[in-house]
Structure formats: structure tokens, C-alpha cells
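dumping this here before i forget
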Amino acid sequence: MLVRDILRVKGTALFTVGPETLLSECVTVMADLDIGSLVVMDQGRLAGMLSFREVLRVLAQRQREHRVGPTPTMSLIKASEVMEPKPRIASPDMDVNDLRKMMLEHHDRYVPVMDAQVLLGVVSFYDVARAVLDAQSFENRMLKAYIKDWPTEG
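structure:
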């Protein structure tokens, strides 16, 4: 199975923001759309990835830095200050097992899929797990159908 197969099933809806977008707006978009990441685009090019991980990190850091006095709010922070500027990239022809390995090794929950300079979508760890489970379930059903007299699940 290839990454393009996951995109085909999940769709290629993209949720993007610009580098100057305020973090408070990014968080609102992520919460309203029930998504865990946003692609940061600058003049039509991938500039970075912003996920809830980066949001939590910056909030924790700002909280530690400002234990006395007011903590700066998210309305003063821009996406470019928080985003991962060089996210790992998947290609549409990448094998899903290679993608899983990369995501596990680097603790990536969201990976942009690029074909040359074109952003095709974002694949989440959930998307990968679901695709693998669906593929295994299909193979299991085909094998059971191939073996005669296999007891049906009820």
C-alpha cells in the first residue's frame, strides 16, 4: 500500500494558514474543525507544520518563562514562531510501512504529502493506522473466503 492510497480514501482536504496568522486563530480553527494540525503556507509553498504539539510546547514554555506576572496570550504569537519549519515529508509513492516507521521513529503525528513542490495532503498517524487495519481486514476476509468451510463470524 502506498501513501497515495491513504489520500485517495481519506480525501485531500487541506487546512492551511499563513505564517503571520495568530496562534489564537490557529487554535480556534483546529478546535472548530476538530483537526490536529494546520499546514503553514507562504506564497504557495510549504513553510511548516503546526500541530497541537507545537501549541502545547509554546504555551508551556511561555508559562515557565513568566511564572511571575502575566503570561503572554496566544493572541501575540504568530504561527511562524511556533510551527515546525522543516517537517518530514512523505511522497505519494512512499510505502505505508516506510511512512509508519518514519512516524514512529520521529514521533510525528502529522506528515505533509508532497509531489515535488505540490502539497497533496496531510496524513495523520490515525489515517495510517486505519488504512493498515482496513487492508488487513480485507486480506483476512479474502483468505477466509478462499479457505472452504471457514466458520462465519456471527
